[in-house]
Amino acid sequence: MSSMRNRRFGQRLIVEGVLPSIGSWLYAICFQRLLLLATALMTFAAVAMADQSKPERKQPWTPEDIVFQEYAGPFQISHDAKWVVWVKSVGDKEKDATVSRLFLSSLTDAQETQLTRGSDTVDQPQWSPDDQYIAFLSTRPLSKSKAQAAEQQIWLIRPHGGEPWPLTELSKAPQQIAWLDKDTIIFSAEEGAPVTQPQNKKDDSIVVDDEEHKVPVRLYKVRLDDGRITQLTSNSDQIVTWAASPNGRFVVARHQISLRELYDQKIQSQVKLHDLQSGTEKIILGELRLGRTSGFTWMTDSTGFYTSAYQTNHPNLSVAAAKVLYHYDFASGRTIRVNLNWQNGLNWQGIPPVTTDNGFLVLLAGATRFVLARYSIDKSSSGILWKQELLRGDHINNIVELAASIDGKTVVYTSSSASSMPQLYRARIEGAALTSPRQLARLNDVLVETHSFARSDIVRWKGANDEEVEGILTYPETYEAGKRYPLITLIHGGPMESDNDSWFVIASYPVPLLNQRNAFVLRPNFHGSANRGQAWVESICCGRFLEYESIDVNKGVDYLVQQGFVDPERIATMGWSYGSIVSISLIINYPERYKAAALGAGNVEYISDWGSTEFGHAFDAYYLGKTPMEDPELYVRKSPLFKMDKVKTPVVIFQGMADRYVFPNESWSFFRALQFYEKAPVRLVLLPGEPHGPQKPSHQLRVVEEEMAWLDKYLFQATKAEGESGREDHRSAK
Fold it and tell me: Exposure check for the chain: N or C terminus, fewer CB within 10 A?
């Protein structure tokens, strides 16, 4: 055995000894190749680790990103609190319009189902009382073409399978829907056509304020089994908003009596309580001053409802005010104010309270944020009292829309900040805390994952009358402390609106594109803004119009310059509607400071505004204190048109040609006045068929491109040719 072992061992030695050069060469080759492979693998791993440690390179924001964002809402929770139905909206390039689809998300797991498709719109999704159907309004085409059918109809779908089908084929589009019971839907719609409708179908003439021949808007019901429609009211006025009680017996509705109400408020709407069982009705809430966004929210047991009203010091006009909450008790017929124990009142957006079995949830006005509160009912011998609890938890200061289950334990909401896009969430309410938040949908997921979102802060400074002003400040994308940057003041409309710590990025407010150009953006809540109580919102009433606003904004600019943030030689302003009005005041009062302005649909002359605007008398008489008939010189003094000789700022102006809030003649006068004095470049971009804000994605893109081209040329000093947007200029007035 030992000889055998030695022989085998010896044979190996002989091979190595007989062929030493060949063996060494083979070993060397193999070793070198293994070494090279190992080195390559180590290098690859090191590079990969280094790439992971570096911040991911983000994609630049584009005008398309601004215009084609996704939005969620409205939404409603099912009665069993297991599902939420919601609407996703997004711009459609081919249709050149916003389209919307219906989605279903589980509140217990991660299921999500798209219920509708196509390039149509859906709205007002409503669960049936037994959760077997979802009713909604839609412009989906009917399977059989009906020449006389309106574009929008009531549709039904089973939530867990099947295609939607139309419940109605109405000649007048339904405006609002709700379930009366599991077999019946109630809706409002116009009644037929006016008797003075021209026989010539090509004649699209309009008779203004034709009270004698106005078309009533009435209530109807339709059965699911046979589609039979029954008229519920015979009013000759127009029902503009309403709510049905959960037991299906009552409807509280606001009736617009006069077509002039929006214009002069001389004849106010009436609120009526309709008893659908007896067919009777009665006028209620006559003592309240309801605003345009005042709605009605029934208690879950149908014993009463809540509504918001204006609290204002003006004796006749309800234009700007704090919002307060009232409760109507059905049994006693009494209306009492709900003590919210909150100085600023309700949110200005008109988001109604959400009722639960033992009270309601509501968003309170908190200056630059909303505050979520729960009010529990405490019934005592003296009546109903409400106990307040301010809720705490994630997203609590950034909720912008809300729904709740009947037991009040599950909520669905959208949440965003000035630095984060809106997302849809579900959470639980435990005690006074919002707990276990879970994102239900991934809106704009590509943008969220691949784009940069600038830092934002709430800032405060001393404005007019040495009073504190708040605003939202977003930072340059590559901000470095100690450096100075350009600044754009981006001013909200209204004036009874507010910029909050929430995502508000649209064509006329393209914040990311400005931050991407390494600029600060300041969104100030000047005197007269909403969400800060009655005294603040009424501070520019009654002749003080345009006295404080531009001072507030300009002192905010001063503050940022003093803090070392802003380059005082690179400041511009932007705004739409009242934001344009305040910006015009800035470039008149501080002509050397503002190097560029991009403005849309702003007034410059108030005598014509008083007569032509839909709410002309109410707005102008409230803010200026008188009518032009009473004091024409006041209207001349307040009109920026007669101060255009001071303007040195290059201005691009945008105007919708179908705007009823600011008529096109205002922008034409603005444009011609600057042309007349020839002290500043000016450009007028007209948007055919558009109302107060552009609706078509193509027009929204044009606005963003024109805005950024103007600022690139006059603020950021980019070297670009005259046709900045790359489109033919024949569509703009020059």
Answer: N
Distance, in Å, from the CA atom of 179 to the CA atom of 564, rounded to the nearest integer, reads 58
**CA 457 – CA 473 distance, rounded (Å):** 5
Strand, coil or helix: 693: coil
CA–CA dist 318, 265 (Å, integer): 8
CA distance 285 to 305: 12
Residue 73: what residue type? G
pLDDT tens across 605-642, in order? 999 999 999 999 999 999 999 999 999 999 999 999 99
Sequence-separated (6 or more) residues with CB below 8 Å from residue 8:
none
Residue with tokens 């006069």: 258
The closest of 410, 227, 402 to 297, measured between CA atoms, is 402
- What distance in Å separates the CA atoms of residue 519 and residue 473, rounded to the nearest whole number? 11
What are the angstrom distances between the C-alpha of 360 and each of 356, 379, 385?
5, 14, 12
As to burial, measured by CB atoms within 10 angstroms (0-12 exposed, 13-18 middle, 19+ buried), residue 676 is exposed
- From residue 661, give the alpha-carbon distance in Å to each of 493, 692, 693: 12, 6, 10
**Token pair for 86:** 């919601």
pLDDT in tens, 684-725: 999 999 999 999 999 999 999 999 999 999 999 843 433 344
Residue 318: which residues within 8 A CB-CB, separation 6 or more? 265, 289, 290, 291, 310, 312
Per DSSP, the three-state class of 322 is: strand
Q: Write the burial class of residue 723 (CB in 10 Å: 0-12 exposed, 13-18 middle, 19+ buried).
A: exposed
Contact assessment for residue 221 and residue 230, using Cβ atoms and an 8 Å cutoff = yes
Pairing relation of β-strands 359-366 and 369-380?
A: antiparallel
Contact between 362 and 350 under an 8 Å Cβ cutoff? The reply is no
Q: Which three-class secondary structure state does DSSP give residue 246?
A: coil
Helices and strands (H and E) in the chain: how many:
14, 38
Question: For residue 209, what are its two tokens?
Answer: 């304020």
What is the value of pTM for the model shown?
0.89
Stated as kind and residue range, the H or E segment containing 37 is: helix 20-53
Amino acid letter for position 426: R
Q: Cα 143 from chain centroid? A: 33
